[in-house]
Structure formats: C-alpha cells, structure tokens
Write a structure and sequence with these properties.
By secondary structure, the chain is of the alpha+beta class. The protein has 2 domains: 6-212, Four Helix Bundle (Hemerythrin (Met), subunit A); 364-528, Heat Shock Protein 90 (2-Layer Sandwich), CATH 3.30.565.10. It has 11 helices and 8 strands. The protein has helices at 11-78, 85-105, 111-142, 144-153, 157-232, 246-326, 332-360, 373-383, 385-388, 406-422, 481-491, and strands spanning 369-372, 393-397, 401-404, 431-439, 442-449, 496-499, 507-513, 526-528. Strands 6-7-5-4-2-8 form a 6-stranded mixed beta sheet. A two-stranded antiparallel ribbon has the order 1-3. Helix 5 (157-232) crosses helix 6. It is elongated.
Length: 529
C-alpha cells in the first residue's frame, strides 16, 4: 500500500494525519508565540519596572539640585545654619536618586543613560567644588558678606550646565522608553498575527474534517441505513454494501452477513414464537386457575370460620357452665378435664377469630386514605396502656403520613408493640422505640425492643401462620399475629423482615410507600409515651 493510495486509508488514519498536521502547525505557532511573548514581557518590564522609575527619579533629581542651590544662597545671605537644611537634604536625595538609577541600569545595555548619569554626577561635583564649598568656607570664616560676595561674583554657567545634563539624562531615559514601547507594540501585533494564523488553521482543519466525515461517514452511513431499513421492512434478500471508508465497508459486510443469518434462521424464529405463544396461553390459563383457587380458599376459610363459630360458642358456653356449676362437686380430675375443655374451646375461638381476621385482609376493604402514623401510634399506646403498665416506655420519632387503611395499620402496630410487651425480659421494664427513615420511594419503619429477642434460625419462620417459637403455656397467643402483620404490610405494597444485627431484644423492619409528591422530611423529632 503506497502512501498516496488514499482510498485504502482508514478513516482513523486520515483523521490522525489531519490532526498531526494541524498539531505540528499549531506547535510551531505556539513556539513562535512563546518567543514573541517573552520579548514582549521584557519590553513591558522595561517600561513598567525600569524606565518609569528612572523618569520619576530624574524629575526628583532636578528638585534635589535646585534645593542644594537654594540652600547655598540662603546660607550666604543669612549665615544661619538652619538655612543649609535644603542643601543637605538635596545632597542626600541626589546621592539616593543617582544610586537608584544606577541600580535600575544593572544588567542592561543602556550605555547612553549611564554616560548621561555620569555627566550629571561630574557637573554636580564641579558645581559644588566651584560654588557650594567656597561659599560654605567663606561664610564660616569671614561671615555672610564674604559668602554673598562670592555668590554675586560667580556666574550661573555651571549650575545651568548641571540642569542641562539632567535634562539630557531625562531625554535618554525617554528615548529608551519610546524604543521599548514601540517594540512592545510590534510584538503585540506579531502575537495578534499568530493568533489569526492559528484561528485560520483551526477553521481550515475543521472544514477539512467536516468534508472528510461527510464523504467517508455521513453519506455512506445514510446509504447504509437506507439499505438496512429495506431489510427491516421485510426484503431479506437485499444485498447490503457501502462505498465509504474501509471501516464502513467492513461494517456493511458484517451487516450483510447478519442479514443472511437472520434470513436463514427466520423460519426457526417463527416456529419458536408460535411455541412461546402456546406456552404463554397455558401459563395464562394456569394463572387464572391459581387466582380462582386462591379466591376459593379465602372464601372457604371465611365460610368455615363462620360455620365453626356457632357450635364452638355452644361448646365453650356449656363447658364454662359445667365449670361454674359443678366445680369441686365431682373430683379433682373431673375439674381438670373441664378446665382443659374450657381452655381448648377458648383457644379454638381465638384461632377462628384470628383466622377470620387473616382472611379479611385485602378482601373486605374500605379503601385507602391518608393515614397519620403518629395518630395510629397514639391510639395503639392507649389500647395497650393496661397491658404495658407504668414501667413500660414506648417512644417514637415523628412518623410520616402514608396511604392505607387505618384499621389495618392500627392492627399492624398493635400486634408488633403487643409482642414486644408480651415477650419482655423478667424484671426488666420494656423499652420500645419506633423510628422511620425515608429510603427513596418508601418509608422504612423500625420497631425495636429490649425483650427476649428471636434466634437467627427462626428469622424465616416467625411470619408463617400458626408458627410458635415457645410452648403454649409459656406465652399466650395463637401464633398468627406476625402472619397478619406480614399480610397487612404486603397488602399496602411493602415488605417486612427481621433485623438480626442487634445486641439484644428484637428489631423488626417494614416498609410503606411514600405518598406521591411528598418531599423528604426535615430531621424527625422524638416523641415519648
């Protein structure tokens, strides 16, 4: 494959070549821009940090020599030392300003400024030697008249030459400033030109990339998609091909191979679909039969429980009558037998009532309403107040409002809190805590107590109907309470489970759906009852 055979180039190869070319050009422009920017920074640095301070120092230098000349004249007239203060201050300022300018010239090639500065120093020394020092000596030895005579006799030529040298220094500084400013403008224009060149390269590269993608991707993909749509419409004999990039040609061959495979297996798919439809029909029939069977079982449990109520009431009534009327009149064993009969009849009544309650859940309904669980907890606490006693403590966080049947939710909490009160530890006051947290689209409610707890091996059995974990004479009940709780939770669209990760007592979690449109609550408050 030759380099010039562009038709054999892959799309990735062409895009890579374009990107590399643009990258090289932009890199070259970047290097040139960096060099230009460095030069611009040097010129700007000269303007801001060198010529500017030097010009200010030159202006101050003029003031310094004028102060010296003023101080000498005042001292020559009055002969008073305090009139020399401008002279001494001007002399100090002159030395400081000359040093400042010299420091700014270090490391540079500003020889003309150095020469001008040296000339200022020479003429300042010459003026002081010719005028200032003789006046000072004359006043000190012969009085102000002698100093005034020297001032009057001296010409201003040397001082004028000093001021002229300072002006020349300022002109040299200004010249350097103008050169630097012009160079900074030039480098700025160069940077603008580089940016324009980079923008042009990017625009041209983008246009080339768009053209490349249009010729090798967009149009061939549209043509390939049209062929695929014809196959999807049912023309499974349509041959699929592409004239785009090598990648698209390979893709077209793969798609055509898939078309051939689909055409070959179409008959098998149709046959399999007919079999699936037959199986679905059978499953639908079985589901309907299962629904009818469950409905019949619920009806049977309801009817059987009702039919058992009347004869059971008679048995229980007559057994209790026998117990009251003939207790102690036969013998001890007879009293025991009658007590067994009374207890069995009463237990059978409780079982039937619990079974009726279990069968009614979800079958006899008054419809869902908004239920405030705080009100439900208060009602349950009132119902269980006698059983709880004064030592028991029931506390809960502020609970949410949910959608459900309030009587069923009251039964749910009554059974769970009642179990916590029933299965308390001896000589330990019951402590029961109800909390609620939001977990996405549902409320997770936890009921935790400090009772005897439930072993992990029974975690899956406690919610089974008529399942008991203790002997009947140890704890009262029919073993259907948690089964009713589970059915109520599931009827409301939730789930329930036993939390085994607790140190003591029992922890039961269940969920209830969050009302639509309800935002997450603020931190919940603690309520103690």
């Amino acid at each position: 494959m030759s380099v010039l055979d562009l038709r054999s180039w892959t799309l990735r190869g062409r895009v890579t070549a374009l990107i590399l070319t643009v990258a090289l050009l932009l890199t070259a422009l970047g290097v040139l821009a960096a060099i230009t920017a460095a030069g611009s920074n040097r010129h700007i640095d000269t303007l801001l940090n060198k010529t500017g301070p030097m010009r200010a120092a030159g202006e101050s230098l003029t003031t310094a020599v004028v102060n010296q000349e003023t101080g000498i004249r005042g001292y020559a007239i009055s002969g008073r030392d305090d009139n020399l203060k401008p002279y001494h201050e001007g002399l100090l300022d002159e030395k400081r300003l000359i040093k400042q300018i010299s420091d700014l010239l270090e490391g540079g090639n500003d020889d003309r400024i150095r020469a001008a500065l040296a000339q200022v120093q020479q003429r300042a020394e010459a003026w002081r030697a010719a005028i200032a020092t003789p006046v000072l000596n004359a006043v000190a030895t012969s009085g102000p008249e002698a100093g005034q005579a020297l001032i009057d006799a001296a010409a201003t030529t040397q001082f004028d030459a000093l001021r002229a040298s300072i002006r020349e220094l300022q002109e040299e500084i200004l010249f350097v400033r103008n050169v630097s400013a012009e160079a900074a403008r030039s480098t700025g224009n160069t940077l603008v030109a580089i940016e324009i060149a980079a923008a042009v390269i990017i625009v041209l590269a983008g246009a080339a990339l768009l053209l490349l993608l249009d010729r090798l991707v967009t149009r061939p993909v549209v043509e390939l998609a049209e062929q695929v749509r014809e196959v999807a419409a049912g023309d499974y004999e349509k041959h699929i091909s592409s004239a785009g990039s090598p990648e698209l040609r390979t893709l077209a061959e793969d798609v055509d191979g898939m078309r051939r495979q689909i055409a070959a297996e179409l008959s098998e798919v149709r046959e399999a679909r007919s079999q699936v439809e037959w199986v679905n029909d059978q499953l639908k029939v079985q589901a309907e039969e299962l629904t009818r069977s469950n409905r019949d079982l619920e009806q049977f449990a309801y009817v059987a429980s009702h039919d058992l109520q009347e004869p059971l009431r008679k048995v229980a009534s007559f057994c209790q009558l026998l117990q009251r009327r003939y207790a102690g009149q036969i013998d001890e064993r007879a009293d025991q037998y009658i007590a067994f009969a009374v207890d069995g009849a009463q237990r059978m009544q409780r079982l039937i009532n619990d079974l009726l309650a279990f069968s009614r859940i979800g079958r006899l309904t008054a419809g869902f309403t908004d239920v405030d669980l705080n009100r439900v907890l208060a009602e349950v606490k009132s119902q269980l107040e006698l059983r709880a006693g004064e030592e028991a403590e029931v506390s809960w966080t502020e609970l949410p409002v949910v959608e459900g049947e309030e009587p069923l939710l009251t039964t749910l909490f009554a059974n769970l809190i009642g179990n916590s009160l029933k299965f308390r530890r001896p000589d330990v006051p019951p402590r029961i805590r109800v909390t609620a947290v939001r977990d996405d689209d549902e409320w997770r409610i936890n009921i935790r107590d400090n009772g005897i707890g439930i072993e992990a091996e029974f975690a899956d059995k406690v919610f089974v109907i008529f399942q008991r974990l203790h002997a009947r004479d140890a704890y009262e009940g029919t073993g259907i309470g948690l089964a009713i709780v589970k059915k109520i939770v599931e009827y409301h669209g939730g789930r329930i489970w036993l939390d085994l990760d607790v140190d003591e007592g029992t922890s039961i979690n269940f969920t209830l759906p969050v009302l639509a449109g309800i935002a997450a609550n603020e931190p919940l408050k603690e309520v103690t009852a």
